[in-house]
Amino acid sequence: MSALSLPGSKSMTARALVLSALATGPSRIVRPLHARDTTLMAAALRSLGASINTAGPATDLPAAPAAAGASTGISAHGSANGSAVWTIEPGPLRGPATVDVGLAGTVMRFAPPVAALADGTVTFDGDPHARNRPLRPIVEALRSLGVVIDSKGGGLPLVVRGTGVVAGGEAVIDASGSSQFVSGLLLSAPRFSKGLVLRHEGPPVPSAPHLRMTTHMLRAAGAVVDESVPDVWVVEHGPLAGRDWVIEPDLSGAAPFFAAAMVTGGAVTLAGWPRESWQPVGILVDLLTRMGAEVSQDDDGLTVRGTGVLHGIRADLSEVSELTPVIAALAALADSPSSLRGVAHIRGHETDRIAALARELGKVGAGVTEFHDGLDIAPGPLRSAVFETYADHRMAHAAAVIGLVAEGVELSDVACTSKTLPEFPELWAGLVTGS
Ligand SMILES: O=C(O)C1=C[C@@H](OP(=O)(O)O)[C@@H](O)[C@H](O)C1
Ligand SMILES: C=C(OP(=O)(O)O)C(=O)O
């Protein structure tokens, strides 16, 4: 049995940073994720006027309460998975500033609405592939709310010409390309003069649990949010309070380690897992259980145990689309075919994940059929190959899982895992060698 202590959730850390920078008083983020995406988010907010210390020692940590309900705030976990504390002191938002979004969807979608509240010009650009990631719907929604933005094709690079005030009001958006368009607007909406009434029109919005995380965290900071009508979010104008945010371990970062247990017949415990989580643990547990794992939770954490069987699965992954690469890797190693659907929008993730998985899983021996919104995967005799990652951390996770079973699988670039889990190579090596 391997016990795993993982850093905090990328998504919760990103939201906590934005809400803290927009708050009326100081905040602390306890056990944040310290990785490329969250470091870029901190740098973006710093350049807009917030003071953010990401080098803080672990002093005076708030006690981990019993899992707090949605009404009271963040659920905390009892066991330390790193003890860093970041401190954030909001300041007047102002330009001129330049923001590097890297390849982070959270930064490129959450920071422009904050920049719109700044007084001055803010320029955004990122990694070469970031220019291909969808952004137009949030740019157009911001324009409809009175924000002046220069952008040739509706994507990066772009310039937000803030005046210090966003009128807000009503906006319509097609967020079928990413839930982050909605989350980005909602997080800044309490600071819009008229608040925000945002209505989605189009194919379903993916990643519903991430939307719920956004509205939970807004409420925890004191915002008034109504999401009672499907596809409509209402956020009232009002102050956001500074507070302590206690970040849960990252569930998506845990997925490859759970997969490792499943393909090797071992067990992995993710320490410090809260009894009530704001991440979609129920969906992951259901998927892994259907594929053959045994999953349990006790005071030690969340344990996934391999049983020696690994079944294929038919699944709609739209709610947990960032798990697709790891589930697809498991599917390539299973005893029956799989059909993964509902994830058309992951063609706009760090790479076109549907095309990339079809190509790379095909190379290592699976029979893969690509669909516009997913993949059919028929396991085949495994072959050695160089598995390309396309600078995508979750492709690296998929390759690592395959490499546990297939001989001679080489990973083209493990450094891309720094996007969300810089410790991945060491943690993986520790898991495999038991060190
Ligand atoms: O809001 C967030 O923190 C995220 C939302 C999801 O984005 P999409 O809705 O674009 O899939 C998810 O895949 C991404 O990794 C993180
Ligand atoms: C899709 C992902 O990230 P991003 O926040 O950059 O969209 C991911 O981490 O799988």
TrEMBL record:
Pfam families recorded: EPSP_synthase
Pathway: Metabolic intermediate biosynthesis; chorismate biosynthesis; chorismate from D-erythrose 4-phosphate and phosphoenolpyruvate: step 6/7
Keywords: Amino-acid biosynthesis, Aromatic amino acid biosynthesis, Cytoplasm, Transferase
Annotated EC: 2.5.1.19
Domain of life according to the entry: Bacteria
Transmembrane segments: none
Catalytic residues, chain numbering: 322
Residues binding phosphoenolpyruvate, per UniProt: 10, 105, 133, 180, 353, 394, 419
PROSITE patterns: EPSP_SYNTHASE_1, EPSP_SYNTHASE_2
Keyword Ion transport attached: no
Binding site for 3-phosphoshikimate: 10-11, 15, 178-180, 207, 322, 349
Domain Enolpyruvate transferase: 4-53, 84-426
Location of the protein in the cell: Cytoplasm
Function statement: Catalyzes the transfer of the enolpyruvyl moiety of phosphoenolpyruvate (PEP) to the 5-hydroxyl of shikimate-3-phosphate (S3P) to produce enolpyruvyl shikimate-3-phosphate and inorganic phosphate.
The protein's assembly and partners: Monomer.
PANTHER family, per database record: AROM/DEHYDROQUINATE SYNTHASE, PENTAFUNCTIONAL AROM POLYPEPTIDE
Family from the record: Belongs to the EPSP synthase family.
Record's protein name: 3-phosphoshikimate 1-carboxyvinyltransferase
Gene name per UniProt: aroA1
